[in-house]
Amino acid sequence: MNPLVxxxxxxxxxxxxxxxxxxxxxxxxxxxxxxxxxxxxNDGGDDGGAKIVLEKIQHYKMVRFINxxxxxxxxxxxxxxxxAAYGTYIFFTDADLPYxxxxxxxxxxxxxxxxxxxxxxxxxxxxSTEHKKANWLRGLTHRIYSHFVRFFIPIPFTDTLAGxxxxxxxxxxxxxxxxxxxxxxxxxxLLLAAQQAGFKIKQVAVSLKxxxxxxxxxxxxxxxxxxxxxxxxxxxxxxxxx
Length: 242
Prior knowledge:
The model has no long low-confidence stretch (mean pLDDT about 90). This protein has eight helices and seven strands. It has one domain (about 5-235): Spore Coat Polysaccharide Biosynthesis Protein SpsA, Chain A (Alpha-Beta Complex). It is α/β, with parallel strands linked by helices. It has a seven-stranded mixed sheet, sandwiched between helices. It has helices spanning about 15-30, 50-55, 75-85, 100-110, 135-150, 170-175, 185-195, 220-235; strands at about 5-10, 35-45, 65-70, 90-95, 120, 165-170, 200-205. The termini are far apart. About 40% of the residues are buried.
C-alpha cells in the first residue's frame, strides 16, 4: 500500500540536526495516524550525516535514503526526492525542521479538501515576536532576496525561501519536468510554474521554532541566486512555464 504522505528532506552538512528531525517526523506521523514515508536525500555531504540516517533506518521502516556523493544543489536534491516519493501528498522541508512538523497537518488538510494543490509556509504572516531569533544576516538576506524576487517574478508570495512546502502528486508529476533551477531559487521556479499551470496555491502562517546552521554562504551564493532569478525571468518571458 502506498503511503498517504511523503516528506522529503535534503541534507548537505546537517549532521547536527538530521537525527532529531527524523525522530520528530516519525513521531508526528505516528501521533496523527498517518501512513507516511520520510525520504532523506544527501546532496554530497561528507560530515557524517549519512551515517546518522543509516542508523535511523534501523529504527524506522518508514525512512528511505538516497545517498549521493556529488553536490548538485538543493533544488536538484528536492526534485530527486520528490520524484522518488510514493505518497499521494508530497512535502519537503529543511533538515533542521524549522517550523516543527505541525504545519504539515494544516497543509495536508488543505490538500485533501481540495482547497489547494500546492501549499507553502510563510513566516511573514505572523508577528516577528513569535519567531525564534535567527542570525541577523540571514534575516537581512531573506528580506533583500524577497524584494528582488517580487521585482522580477510575477508571483504574489512574500516568503518563497521558507523551508516547507507541500503538493499533490498531480502537481509533482506535471511540474517537475518543467523545472531547471538546481540550487537556491528552485522554490521560486516551482511557485511560478504552479501559478502558470493554474494550480491552486495556499499559504500557511508559520513561526520559526528551530534555527539550525544554514548551508547558505552569502558571499558565495548571492551572485548565483541573482543569476537564477534572472534565468527564471527569461524562461518565463519565453513561455517555458505556460
